[in-house]
Amino acid sequence: MTETFGSYVREAHGSVNSGDGPQFNFYYAAEARLREQASRRPRAIAKEDRDHLAARFVPPRGMQHARNRLDETNTVLIDGLPGSGRRTAALMLLHDLSDAKGSLHELPDTSDDTATLALDTGEIGDGDRLLLDLSEADESRYIAVQSALSDFRDSLVRHGAHLVVVLPHRLGYLLQGELKRLTAEIGRPSAQRVLITHLRHEGIDPPRSELDGSGLTSYLPQLPMRDIVGLAHRIRRRRDASPADRGFSDWLAESLVDQRDQTARVAADLASQRDGRHRALLLSVALFHGATPETVLRGANTLLGVLSHPPDPTPRLDRADLHSELSDIGAEAQPDGRVRFRTVAYDRAVRDHFWTFLPDIRRQLRDWFDACLVEPSLAQSDRKEAVTRFAAQSLRTARPEDLSWLAHRWTSDRAPAHLVPDAAQLLALGLDDEQHGRHFRQQIYDWSTSTETGAGLRRVLVLVCSQTMARSHPDQALVRLHHLARRSNGVAGARARQALLDLARSDHRLYRRLLDRLAAGIAQGQWTEDRALFLELADPVRLMGYRSVRESLISCWYGVLRRPVESWAAPLARWLTAGEDLRHRDLVLRVLTAACDADVRVSGCLYSAALRWQYVGPGASRAETVSVLLRKINTAQGIESYPLAV
Fold it and tell me: What is the pTM of this model?
């Protein structure tokens, strides 16, 4: 190697930022990174993503049978091999139903605040379209859901709602007999047709002859649906970056080169190269592929330190330089100054080999990655790519806890602020993973409800809940943001409250759900923050025609009106102003009056506050609003007004 093996960065002993300014910049960078990542994964349940999927969806075998089952019984259980597009098919079944009433949302797949309920009928609204993804459920969860499904389906029918469940194919032997009639098995759609459909939506209409003669006929059937979509995206990127004289055959060939399997070649190269320092350099190039020589060398040295590899006693000038060592492992510094392997896709094969065939050092690889990312000189672009590569290996080898551990560590009080975007990206990648997403949703719930979670991690959790989780699991994001808003102070608390309110206001169903949660919290009296959230969220006009909404509002106002007047006088003015409109006056004042519950003291405080509001802006409409309020208060207390005697 070209540097001595002496000291290594193993952990951060103090924050490198000197104030809130630089720290905030890193949170903005984290938000931008999450938005970019979300834009590349249109698989969420949000309507814009569903519209994107619907335009490119190729119905699989068995889709019509599933549609018939859903129409007849309001419920269908989707089964099929992993990689066949089960979740997408389930989403499209629900997407195709009428959206005139109710909403489309996914049922929680973690314990959250209803740990005792396998299925909560409170999640069902009139005309709702519900998705329950059990593809990665364990045995106990799968059995519990089946046991609760009968009562849940009865409630579905009463509400005119529909449910699509994605079954865990590996647990097919546990499916109860009475549910088999609700099952529809789907097969893979035509892989070539999926590719052609996605390409045409990118403005590429490939000649059929070039598709048939390019080796795709045997290659595509081996790929999961998501990888076929990824191939279409790579072809589009090649087209955008290619000279004008290149055509589809060139774009396809270059895209397929990226997918070549170099596994056997890497295994042979490592078998012939047993020197630890060369292997460390090999892995460093693979993880920091496209980085500077300094970054690659630092990574190799750090790995040797983490693994306690003995230093080379050979005098420095007697050893080969970095150029020579890179050449020995098939890499080079290219004209842009960045180090890459000469063989395409070799870097991915190296990473796969180390994580697959050296399982006993996976924890040390995590510690090595931690030490490398602590280094502040690593460029943001290099950090982002390295985080993506490390996360892919950890998730592929079923080590999601490595990402959780790093995210927690990188957001501690002692961690450098530049690690914030990296921590956020790790959690977002975990949430987006089909196999381990549930692990991260549960972990984030546990963090959001813990009093020991630090302010730095709370701020990152707000970001990933609002930018990533809310796209695919908005209900679970709302629950976590609510817990964070309750338990966070300062900047973290303000960001959590704003993100929670923004999410709740974005959808009628989420608005109603947060109102229900606030009503329960205010009634319990445990969280003072719930009252402030209610006063900021509650709209005196929105959905007031629904009795359940009015009941939640009454319950919330009941708790609020019994606090000091100055804490609710300003929000009350907004409600009274809405009551000036004759279209809304009756319901607005009915809610406020009912919240007094005929309590003379509370009613008096409400009426006094209303009088002050009237005097601030005199006018006939204000006077009439206060007069109607007084009549409703009197009626609630059993005081009848009598006409004057003649």
Answer: 0.88
